[in-house]
Structure formats: C-alpha cells, structure tokens
Design brief:
Elements (H helix, E strand, L loop, with lengths): L3 H17 L3 H9 L5 E2 H8 L3 H13 L3 E6 L2 E6 L3 H27 L1
Antiparallel strand pairs: 1-3, 2-3
Length: about 110
C-alpha cells in the first residue's frame, strides 16, 4: 500500500511538471533547446521575446527539472535535460491535431 505522504509527493511532482508544460512560451523554449543548448541572448533573438520573459520561463523549466543551466564564462547555457519530453510533446500535438480534424469533419458533415 502506498503511504499518504508518497501519494502526496507523487501528486505534487505531477502537478509541478504539468504546470511547467502548461504555458505556450515554455513549450516553444523546450523546442528551441531540443537541438542544442543556448543562452538567454540566443533564445531572445531566436524567439523574438523580451529577455525578462525568457529568463522567467527558463526559471520555471529549470525548477521543474526539464532544463539545466551551466555557466560558461559570462553566459549561462540552458539545455534540455531529457529529450523524451519533446517526443511526449510531439505525441500530444499529434493527438490535438487529430481531435481538431475530427471536430472539423463533424462540422462539415453536420453543417
């Protein structure tokens, strides 16, 4: 039997991860880090976002364990910790795309 404490910790970890993935800007950042590590300046230029916005979202991703940060000279390089998160996001996007197509067919067939 799972203890109440363990169940609460698992629930909190799940909630923290889902919360980190619940923002479109954070999803874009994860995809931007999928190919290579980048610093905040590179991310702000690539994504055309303000530096404070990128830094704030990177902190959430770092706190949730999805992104790591390593100092390299005067810069901090951010990297994706586990590339399986991109696979999971791609799967969720495919499911969403299928649902949208299904709803579109329902509208066409009933309209």
């Amino acid at each position: 039997m799972i203890s109440t404490t363990l169940a609460q910790e698992i629930t909190q970890l799940h909630a923290d991860l889902c919360s980190a993935l619940a923002d479109p800007t954070r999803l874009i950042l994860l995809y931007a880090l999928a190919d290579q590590s980048r610093n905040v300046t590179e991310l702000t230029q690539e994504l055309n976002l303000p530096q404070p916005t990128v830094s704030r979202h990177l902190k959430v991703l770092r706190d949730s364990g999805l992104v790591s940060a390593a100092r390299q000279g005067t810069n901090v390089q951010y990297a994706l910790v586990d590339h399986r998160v991109i696979d999971a996001l791609d799967m969720l996007r495919a499911i969403l795309r299928d649902r949208i197509e299904h709803h579109a067919r329902l509208i066409v067939n009933n309209g």
